[in-house]
Amino acid sequence: MDLNRVAVFVKVVETASFTAAANALGMPKSSVSRSVSNLEDDLGVRLLQRTTRTLSLTDAGRAYFARARESLSGLDDATTAVKDMGKEPRGVVRVTAPVDMGVAVLGDLVSRFVLRYPHIRVDLSLTARRVDLVEEGFDLALRAGKLEDSSLIARPITFGTSGLFASPAYLKRRGKPKRVEDLTSHDCILFRARDGKLSWRLTSAAGGDEDVDVTGPVTVDDFSFVQVVVTAGVGIGLVPTLFCTAAVERGELVRVLPEHEQRGIGRLHLVSPSTRYEPARVTLFRDFVLDGFKAMGAT
């Protein structure tokens, strides 16, 4: 069996087009079509139904494609594993993440990672779109909320609290609140509020839960933008604590009412496709990110 013909067939199915497969493989379209026809002759069965407008798998083609793609993936894994042996990890790690999490947290982690591993390049896509890791060729994804794809390998990251933060400039101009009720007279940056109003439930070990109604000049649905506006001195924001760790260390933000927090804000997952072999560069990046979150107080 000519494995090149098998690889061409798999690419045709993945791209749903002879033309697209030819472009991806750098081959003439006629060569792609001939390769698939020769494979069908070798097997003695028709794999694809072709018309001038559509391309569809036969039952035999569907069964063959599933097993062939898995086998080719195993060969790719084996090749990568051998190349990784005895070498410094190198190559590209493709990662996707939500915009707010990428801006607030991954920027620092990615910067430190590529400085430590100069032969590894990180290709980071920040998007609100749910990316198909396998179809689009991503190694890892940072995802919030409930996972829909059970075929992915998921590593949970719990970031359980948000805190109140403000810039030194704002606190100098407006003063620092001493009690939760003082927040009603401050400008607050609101996450997913309506009509410029929001109720915050804050918890402290000493006083339990306290609710406070706050207002502010800016409402937004992205935590990283909340942090940007807070850092600019516009008001006080309730932001996931791990988002602000680096900014506090740099003196750009100050924790306000540090004994109070909002709990149970959610969980992230660092997910990857289910494959038998993970390249060393991907393993290094995955573990680096997980350790980074742990250092910021996530579990």
Kindly describe this structure:
Strands 7, 8, 9, 10, 11, 12 and 13 form a seven-stranded mixed sheet that branches. By secondary structure, the protein is an alpha/beta fold. The chain contains ten helices and 14 strands. β1 (about 50) and β2 form a beta hairpin. It has three domains: about 5-85, Arc Repressor Mutant, subunit A; about 90-160 and about 265-295, Periplasmic binding protein-like II (D-Maltodextrin-Binding Protein, domain 2, 3-Layer(aba) Sandwich); about 160-265, D-Maltodextrin-Binding Protein, domain 2, CATH 3.40.190. α1 packs across α3, α2 packs across α3 (about 30-45) and α5 (about 100-115) crosses α10 (about 280-295). The radius of gyration is 26 Å and the shape is elongated. It has helices spanning about 5-15, 20-25, 30-45, 60-85, 100-115, 135, 170-175, 225-230, 240-250, 280-295, and strands at about 50, 55, 90-95, 120-125, 140-145, 155-160, 160-165, 185-190, 195-205, 210-220, 235-240, 255, 260-265, 265-270.
Write the layout of secondary structure elements.
Blueprint: H1 3-15, H2 18-25, H3 29-43, E1 48-50, E2 55-57, H4 59-84, E3 91-97, H5 99-116, E4 120-126, H6 133-136, E5 140-144, E6 153-158, E7 161-166, H7 168-174, E8 187-191, E9 197-204, E10 208-220, H8 223-231, E11 236-240, H9 241-249, E12 254-256, E13 262-263, E14 267-272, H10 280-295
Parallel strand pairs: 3-4, 3-5, 8-10, 8-11
Antiparallel strand pairs: 1-2, 5-14, 6-14, 7-11, 7-12, 7-13, 9-10
Helix pairs in contact: 1-2, 1-3, 1-4, 2-3, 5-8, 5-9, 5-10
